[in-house]
Amino acid sequence: MVASRSIAATERAALDFPSLAQWLGRTRETSDVLTPRLVDAYRATLTPHLADMEPGAAPPAIHWCLAPEVADASRMGADGHLLTGEFLPPIPLPRRMWAGGRVETSAPLHQGDHVTRRSKIAAITRKEGRSGTLGFVTVEHELDTDRGAVIRERQDLVYREAALPAPGETPGEMRARAAAVPAAAPPADCDKVWTIPASPVLLFRYSALTFNSHRIHYDQPYAMGVEGYAGLVVQGPLQATLLLNLAATIGGSTPRVFEYRGVAPLIAGGDFFVCGRRETGGKLECWTQSSHGERSMEARASW
């Protein structure tokens, strides 16, 4: 079982990143309409943890629910992700997730907007980390409406090897070990803290909003037994969405620039915290934190 979840020597040899250079500069254009139904579903899923907006403006981060890639079941991998090799490069590592990114907002989206997203593969790199070989893909996006460009975004994706439980440890034991860590409250100097119940229903509804079928967010036996997590995993874009809305709530408007990066998986099943703290110079530090005190995603916002 362990051998089936690790990268074999022949597969390591196939990690020929220079050969993936042909994907650099590859582009894709998609479009969508920000419908009243999507706005209502977004609000129903995340209220009361959304920033107040001017009349007609949609809440921040709803753009991650627009124009998802719609693929036939035959084009899906065993993990529920769309197979690579069309737009995204076919890096032969089994785990793919958001690593971080940067969102620059010049104007909010409005209900009824016709939105066109233009995407480009900007970089492909390889690194060796503590968990093994990592592949990073940088995708640049521009979102246009009839009013012109409203959002420019850099999205960093990471491809990783499978994570395995400690030798001899069952998924149940791994989950019990994670739950045994003492609880820890957010720092007292936060300007604002939201407490979010990380329920399977929240994860399912957000996956439905974004048409994300990655099984680690709804299939607990798969998440624990195959990908080696201690339970269901809270989506990176869901965490970034909450952080961006918290920043907009504290700052009184959507940040001009919002940069974020994932630092650890956030496991569902209990509450987690979304925290924000003003810094000197008008910037804002914000982060998600598990109930045990471990940071999962960190971000900076500026206006």
Tell me about this structure:
With 303 residues, this protein is α+β, with helices and mostly antiparallel strands. 19% of the residues lie in helices and 32% in strands. It has 6 helices and 10 strands, in the order αβαββββαβαααββββ. The protein has helices spanning 9-13, 36-46, 171-179, 200-210, 220-225, 236-251, and strands spanning 27-33, 95-105, 114-129, 132-145, 148-160, 192-197, 257-262, 271-278, 284-290, 295-302. A 10-stranded antiparallel beta sheet has the order 1-3-4-5-2-7-10-9-8-6, covered by helices on one side. Strand 9 (284-290) and strand 10 form a beta hairpin. Helix 2 (36-46) packs antiparallel against helix 4 (200-210). The N and C termini lie far apart (50 Å). 34% of the residues are buried. Mean pLDDT is 89; it is low at 1-13.
In helices, the fraction of residues equals 10-25%
Global structural class: alpha+beta
List SSEs in N-to-C order: HEHEEEEHEHHHEEEE
Largest sheet, spatial ordering of strands: 1-3-4-5-2-7-10-9-8-6
Distance between the termini: 50 Å
**What's the gyration radius in Å?**
19 Å
Beta-strand fraction estimate? 25-35%
Summed over residues and divided by their number, the pLDDT gives a mean of: 89
Number of helices: 6
Contiguous low-pLDDT stretches (5 residues minimum) are 1-13
